[in-house]
Amino acid sequence: MKVTNIILSIVILLLAIALAVSSFFLYEKREIMLSGWEKLTTTVNETAKEMDKNSGTKLAESLTQDELHHTNYANLEDKLKALNEGAAKLIQQRDNLARTLSNVARVLEASNAPGTEDLTKINSSADAAKKVAAQANEFKARRDAAYNSLLKSGRLLGISINVNDLKKGNSKKVFDAVDKRINELQNQLRRYEATSREIGRIAGKNLTFNASNYASSLVQLKNAVQDLRNKLQVTESNLKGAKNEIAELKGKVDNQNKNIKELNTTVSKKDAEIKNYRRALNLDPVEVINPWNDGSKEARLAVRGKIIEINKKFGFCVINLGNNTLVEQRIGNRINKINPQIESNMIVTIARNIDNADIKDDEYISKGKITNVADDCAIIEDISNDKPIKVGDDIYFAEKDLK
Questions:
Q1: Structural domain boundaries of the chain?
Q2: Contact 116, 132 (CB under 8 A)
Q3: How far from 67 is each of 53, 63, 80, CA to CA, in Å?
Q4: pLDDT tens, 31-44?
Q5: DSSP secondary structure, 221-247, as one string
Q6: Over 50: is that where the pLDDT of 280 sits?
Q7: 336 near 329, Cβ under 8 Å?
Q8: What class does CATH assign to 297-401?
Q9: DSSP structure class, residue 72
């Protein structure tokens, strides 16, 4: 029995010693764990502070060392849940930003644009972000160069371009103004080329305007115009001489007309004498034809003309009667030519088919008034709207319209 007690005492002693040693080591481990817990809470708090920077969150206020103390272990899961949610949001924000930057690079049509993965990886995100920024700067440089070129083009076109309109999204206004000015210049150029071709055609030159021969065509036009100018000077000189000859001839004609008038007076007197002699001798009476005088009613009644041109835009037409128009009077076996002296304000009758033998009755068309008389033509206006007129219609003076 004594031995058994001794053995039990020894065992109890050993157990006590083992328990004391275990307690010592457990206490030491507890101190280590508490130290690690404190470091962990410090790290969590600092991490929360970093996440709060410029993010608008207040995670660090709820994740203090006191709130995360081991004595508050029961609430630890709820506290750390907020940290997890904040980290998830931060990751989502990072991913959204990476996708946005990647899309921006593609929109900028940058070559070798970084992908979303390059922008999310910690080891490559900084370089990828710098690359997107550089590509954005390159795009801005190209855009500014395009704006400067457009401003220069605007100055050349003679229009004012406000670069702020381009930067603020009003580019359509700017390009509409540029398009309008370009269309105006194109129309001016087409009119200029058409007029130049017409001038060249008049001068006997067939001109074409394209990129390869534009300058040579202008030289041909210049030479052709110079030739026309030289010919015009010669023509003006000849015309001046012709006018002098006409004036001289007109003087001679006036003298001849005066002589003719005097001879017509003498003839009239002689005809009257012959008529008296025949009456005295009881001879058969004969019809004596009196010559018409210039501008006489008889001469004007004998006038026949034609419409040679109609200008509907300005409401007048041109007839082939003028200062040089003559009518014929047969006297015996000779023809006497008389000037009916067509004048402004005379009323003319417009008819159709009066000289056509196949038409029994002429067709009355309208009336008009002479407003201007040249040597070989005249202008008639104030045309009544009885019937439409046309080129070739006949012109004459009705007796009731002659004073």
A1: 166-197, 213-288, 297-401
A2: no
A3: 20, 6, 11
A4: 666 566 567 667 76
A5: HHHHHHHHHHHHHHHHHHHHHHHHHHH
A6: yes
A7: yes
A8: mainly beta
A9: G
Contact call for residues 318 and 374 (beta carbons, < 8 A) = no
Rounded to 5°, the CA angle 239-245-246 comes to 85
> Which ranges of 162-213 does DSSP label H, i.e. alpha helix?
163-167, 171-202
Structure-derived torsion over alpha carbons of residues 51, 52, 56, 59, reported in degrees to the nearest 10: 100
At 145, which amino acid appears? A
Question: End-to-end distance of the chain based on CA atoms, in angstroms?
Answer: 185
Tally the residues of the chain. 403
Q: What are phi and psi of 16, to 5 degrees?
A: -65, -45
Residues 128 and 98: their CA atoms lie apart, in Å, by: 9
Of 304, 300, 282, the C-alpha closest to 292 is 300
Backbone angles phi, psi at 271, to 5 degrees: -60, -40
Torsion angle of alpha carbons 156, 159, 163, 167, nearest 10°? -110
Our CA angle for 247, 248, 251, nearest 5°, is 85
Angle, alpha carbons 328-331-335 (nearest 5°): 40
Q: pTM value?
A: 0.40
Read off the pLDDT band of 278 (50, 70, 90).
Answer: low
Mean pLDDT of 172-177: 79
At residue 328, the pLDDT reads 92
Q: How far apart are CA 287 and CA 266, in angstroms?
A: 18
Count other Cβ atoms within 10 Å, centred on residue 132. Answer: 21
